[in-house]
């Protein structure tokens, strides 16, 4: 353990390390306005939860990670991402029973949309799902449901750890975090947002899966670095940094630096996998290229957005992006 508690830490320069160029959809303002109307209608969001939405800037995230989507698809993607943050905020305050109940409501809304459940989250789920299935391929629909199911299973496991005050070992954490991130479902929306219909056997190819994992790891581990300050102030240990501090007996800054190195390695892994992709014929290759570019958009877009949102650094995101210095918040457990 550190001899004296640190008061700040330095972020790794992940923005410079990422070799891809950010893009922003021209539909950004429109989807932001429409999603906000959808989210706030009736009593979908009230009180503190509604306040959290304002600084989130989710419309910018959607516009950066699905920059080529047509407006109707981008709107569904933005609704889903906003809804995912809403679920994440809800699950932060839940025990494992609460997350399982929410999971049942959401998954039943997808598998049985004709059965009208009354909870607000069920109505929201049915609404965006109805719009998504109107143009999504059957493969996309199936992958969306499967990956969202994995998300809920892993969030329930995370809630168990939180209740028991347990810090998982590194390997278990990495496997769990790939699901709690919501990235797998968000990456399915790359296919949806670009009207792709890539065969299952191509999506399950080891290199395609490895590319998705590398992108997921970069998005997720960089997010752990950016969200660490807020999470440590609440005593939340479901984060790569405390896992590594615990696993390797490291102080804060060396642990942050190590997570930064792992992020760089995930970029290298992605570039290496991308260079080795086989050919499946002109049409499938064209669609695979769009999908892989979508993963790149997610990697670079999420990095830049993290400093534009108030979720991690309050109103000081741009300043932190320049200085890379994060002053630790006091703990309020």
UniProtKB/TrEMBL annotation:
InterPro entries: Isoprenoid_synthase_dom_sf, Terpene_cyclase-like_2
Organism domain of life: Eukaryota
Keyword terms, alphabetized: Lyase, Magnesium, Metal-binding
Protein name: Terpene synthase
The keyword Hydrolase appears for this protein: no
SUPFAM superfamilies (alphabetical): Terpenoid synthases
Listed EC numbers: 4.2.3.-
Protein species of origin: Lentinula lateritia
Pfam family for this entry, one: Terpene_syn_C_2
Cofactor(s) of this protein: Mg(2+)
Top EC class of this enzyme: lyase
